[in-house]
From TrEMBL:
It holds the Pfam family IF-2B. It is found in: Cytoplasm, Cytosol. Transmembrane segments: none annotated. Residues 1-17 form the signal peptide. It comes from Centaurea solstitialis. Belongs to the eIF-2B alpha/beta/delta subunits family. GO terms for cellular component: cytosol; eukaryotic translation initiation factor 2B complex. This is Translation initiation factor eIF2B subunit beta. Component of the translation initiation factor 2B (eIF2B) complex which is a heterodecamer of two sets of five different subunits: alpha, beta, gamma, delta and epsilon. Subunits alpha, beta and delta comprise a regulatory subcomplex and subunits epsilon and gamma comprise a catalytic subcomplex. Within the complex, the hexameric regulatory complex resides at the center, with the two heterodimeric catalytic subcomplexes bound on opposite sides. GO terms for molecular function: guanyl-nucleotide exchange factor activity; translation initiation factor activity.
Amino acid sequence: MLSFLLVHAIALTGVISTVIMPDTHALVHDFLNKLKRRKIEGSKGTAKLTAELLRTVISQQRIPNTNQAGALIDAIKAIGEQLVAANPVELAVGNVVRRVLHIIREEDLSLTTSAIGGPSLSVISDDENDVDRDDYPALSAAVVAASARNALRAPSLQTLLEDMSHSAALHHSSSSLDDSEEKTKSTDKNSRSRKLKHNVIETVNELIQDIAACHEQIAEQAVEHIHHNEIILTLGSSRTVIEFLSAAKEKKRSFRVFVAEGAPRYEGHILAKELIGRGLQTTVITDSAVFAMISRVNMVIVGAHAVMANGGVIAPVGLNMVALAAQRHAVPFVVLAGIHKDLDSHCILPTPGRLGAYGLCPLYPHKPEVLLNELRSPSELLDYGEFSDCMDSSTGTGFPLLHVANPAFDYVPPKLVNLFITDTGGHNPSYMYRLIADYYSADDLVLQRKPAS
């Protein structure tokens, strides 16, 4: 009866893990459905939710005593491949998965380096494969000194008796040492697995915080790039662009913003309302008027869906046209990229220049119009009821005569980009590959989608 009441009390307080811990499989399944149905929009929001999901998976993952980092990596890779397949165009998902894999590798290396070169070097090896050291049990200093004294003295009855007593004591201590070794090894491995998970989760928490606040560091540089009486052109509805322009306004910069309406979803209308609400002088223009108005513009500032390894940009549809117009009239084309500093407080390795970003993608644009794009609903362009009679009735095949193409993204090649503004400063497109090389582990690039044959 007492045990029943105790268990009931523990359950009420939420101590039992099965009561308070969410079902990982259910969370992954729900997130997969949201990705497939395009219920999550925006690279920043998708990256943050992906990192939070992987954090939950890591916290609930049971790690074996051997190959602890490998078990975590396999689990994250298995889930990551599912997430990437659910929405291949949302590159932020794969980027965050790669970043978490890189974090696991770094934390495992940090713990290994600390165990080998730390101040408390143990005579018992932490490596279960270190057969040489396991086959020869460690001896205490007293036993070694006694053996040395015995080797120097002449053989006698007393010496033989002492040798026998030392041998018996050594055998006893060796046998008790074997038992303590096993217990110590088991304890050390359990402690190391907890330490690995703790460090990884702490670093993923920092990654989530950096993703949430990355636009703030970018906005701080606005006053360095926007000056008085300038005209800025933008397209799309990027939160980073909004904060960037608002920061310049707060620094008493007086400028005007041209906003292309971004048909057919008209995200420019949403952006214009946001800018007006923050006190910015805003002019809405049609997408087709970009070439006509670009000669009056001092700078084009846009956000990015993803930055490719070659410095190219996956961006909202229509931006390639804007970039071509800017190049034609020698107007700087500036991209705000979500890059953040990721200084790992747990990693003892000297990596102060290491960077991280959910928007940096290690992929190269192979046929971007096919692999890195998606077609949105035709209803954004045309009302189905008005064109439902556009069928080929003469042949009886029932195939429609009218087709609607509504791509979501454009690919802007690096030659059309003048500058990337990140929270680490401004970067040339050619420098982006170096950032990406520091950002991901080479072993984690298996998530890269192969180009279509």
